[in-house]
Each structure stands twice: as structure tokens, then as C-alpha cells.
Amino acid sequence: MGSIVDRVWADLHERVGDDLRVVTRCETRKFETRMREDVRERYSEEEDRAIVDDAIVRQLGLFDTERRFEAGPLEANVNVFEQAWVIAWPDHLPGKSGVIVSIQRDGDVATIRDVEDCLRYLDEEVGPILDE
Asked: Residue 93: is its pLDDT beyond 80?
């Protein structure tokens, strides 16, 4: 069936097409990433590692955030940039693993609703696979 990154890429690409920019699966010491070709040209392997490290550091701080806000369990961290939504979805807080998805914000297909659908997909379809 391929890796979890390949599966998530295929499933999300089916929903948002070429507005899908990046899918990364990160774990404590390793990561796998797949990028749209034009996005891949912008980043070196060292920059990929720095992005993953940054996401993990931020994720470790989310556990306290979840406890401070009385709004239910924290599901993900969504960053909004001029050109993209970047979703950092942790497997478990305060763990060091999860999935990072980037969707083109100014693209042809994707909308904020697709970000919500992506979160639902990660929770309902990817989460159970990672728990196995």
C-alpha cells in the first residue's frame, strides 16, 4: 500500500488537487515528506529537517496550551500564511510525532472548508492507522 505519506498524499490530492503542497510524517528521529514539484524546488533536505524540528518543538508546547484553554482537546496547530495553510497534526500530545500538511491558500480549489475536512480526515482515517 505504500507509506502513510503516500496514502495521505493520494487521499488529500483527490480532494484538493494541485492545491496540495506538502505532506510530511514526522516521528522522534525521522521523517518522510512528499512535496508538489514546484514546492520541492524551494527546499533543501536541511530545510526540511529544520521545519520538522520546529513543528516538533511547537507541538511539545501545545500540551500546556490544551490544558489552559477550556475548549476541549487540541486537535492541531494551523498556521495561516499568505500563500498556504500549514496544518501540524500531532499523533498524541505531548509526543514528538505527527503529520504536517500544507495546502495552497490562494489556489484554484482549496478553501478553509478543505482545511476542516483535512483535520477530520487526519482524525478519523489516519489516526486509527497510526494507533495500530
From this structure: no
Residue 102 main-chain phi, psi, to 5 deg: -120, 130
User: What sections of 2-126 are H helices per DSSP?
Assistant: 4-16, 37-40, 45-68, 112-121
Distance CA 124, CA 118 (A): 10
Element (H, E) at 130: helix 127-131
Q: Which fold has domain 4-127?
A: Beta-Lactamase (3.30.450)
Omega before residue 94 within 30° of 0, cis = yes
Q: CA-based diameter of the chain, in Å?
A: 41
Q: Where are the domains of the chain?
A: 4-127
65 vs 118: CA distance, rounded Å: 22
Nearest-angstrom CA–CA distance, 52 and 33: 10
pTM of the full structure? 0.90
> Which residue bears the cell 524551494?
42
- Residue range 102-130, pLDDT digits in tens: 999 988 888 999 999 999 999 999 999 88
3-state secondary structure of 3: coil
